[in-house]
Amino acid sequence: MNGLYDLGECSLEQVHALVARARELREGAATRRFDGKALGLLFFNPSLRTQASFQRAAGKLGLALVQLQGGAGGVWGIEFEDGAVMDGANAEHVREAAPVLGRFVDVLAIRAFAGMKSLASDLRDPLMNGFRRHAGVPVVNMESALWHPCQALADWATLEQHAIAPRAKFVLTWAWHPKPLPHAVPNSTLTMAAQRGMDVWLLRPRGYDLHASVIEQARTLAQRSGGSLTITDDREAALRGASAVYAKSWGSHECWGDLEAEIKLRAPLREWCVSADWMRKTERARFMHCLPVRRNVVVRDEVLDGPWSIVIDQAENRLHAQTALLESTFAALERSPRQPSNARPILETLP
What we know:
single chain, Rossmann fold, 14 helices, five-stranded parallel β-sheet, alpha/beta, disordered C terminus
């Protein structure tokens, strides 16, 4: 592996190998160690599972850890637009920040959510792609404006752990939330299930479609792997015969950057909360969510605390999947070592 941006960019063989390795690690297999190598973690947004699991994975692999936090009290504000006149809040450009960190560490992992102000900007995934272009080392996406591949990899491993067949019916359902959320998790969940070859149903109210490019990618992946994709607002049809129900809220593209319009659009949709009644319509489905989750808003207590829920297994598998991913990434670096900087000593360049 040479970093990871979107799980859909990986071949099925690569994903199967990572999932198999994650399963071995979950069952207690020893990891390889890469003493003397360093992993950088840069968080521009909050994290519980991602931060803890990457820290633990680094320890298992013998990696030195450089962890940085964006925002107040952390790293400088980072500009990502080329040609920007930097007379505002941002004090550093990604063109300098990324290669500097790339000189300090061997692999760099970044978390940078969508800004939720400009849809055109978020669709470019500018901060993540700026680091990918300029870091000079493999970059792992810990959730960006568009994708959350580490969550998707762990979810795939969780489906395998619970013996949910590759051709089973998988429902990704929108759920109500008091505010609009980014699309990275639903984008990655939809394409992950399609790539696995599942009978994927996207259940959402009108106005909450995922982006056309993501739908196109999911259809392409489903076609390659023998799966299917159905988009509907018919809850009964979607839940009937389902083996997995994955709940997540996300914002409407129609209201992107307009909070007042978004709140008005979702106001009548509070019944989109997964309950026991939903789950009883399925084929003894498992309930999934990436966490954190708002109880009795996105999903009822009766589901989270009931026999359907496998959300804790999903969270645990973040550790095993990311350990497998980092192990693969650092092993690839051993096979193709990074070349040293070609910069000459300053004294040699002075007149």
